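Re: the pair you flagged

First of the two:
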Amino acid sequence: MKKEIPPRLENVCLIIKEHIRNRDYRFSEHAVQRGLERSISFADALYVLKNGVHNEKKTCFDARRCTWKYAIEGKTTADSLARIIVAFEKGMVIITVIKLFKKAKREKR
């Protein structure tokens, strides 16, 4: 029996802020490990989630877990760019943290 795909959340940034305000979130082991490797603290991840923007192109459906994974991007407190991936399973789960680097613009010839 196939599970039905749940609808994508509208206003995901507002929902994320509500989960943070209510302290209804947790960091996955993977997010903790990646944060250590990429020098993105818990405080930085939460800052990006509170102040960043939803990147709909990087948001995707996880068929194995039957849930949407939302990508939020923004600057950390140290002014570097990061993408935070979250899902909503018994509260909000911070799945991973990614440090972003701006691509240099190519010169037109």
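Second of the two:
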Amino acid sequence: MKSGKIYLRKLLLYFEISGAVVTDSGLYRCSITDGFSTGVFTDSAQLTVQEAILSFVQEPQNALKFVGDSVTLEAEGASSVSRGVLYQWQKLSTNGSTYIDIKNS
């Protein structure tokens, strides 16, 4: 029998999903092998990716103004995630059938 030293090398492997989407949800596991031995597997980990829950904390209020007056409409949104929310104001078209985005709002 040969004599020698046994070294345990700690190998840590990361798997990162950038920009996760709902379809990334599922069970994940990792396997290792040294190319000679039978591979081994970790337990599975469940990844759940869900849509953020969005809501309005404050909605715009009706206003009556006269020609030449300034008007400020306010809305405040909230999200269940920390990245915040994006706002887009819209105005109902003159025919009343669709809302149109207001540029730079």
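The mean pLDDT is 89.

-B.
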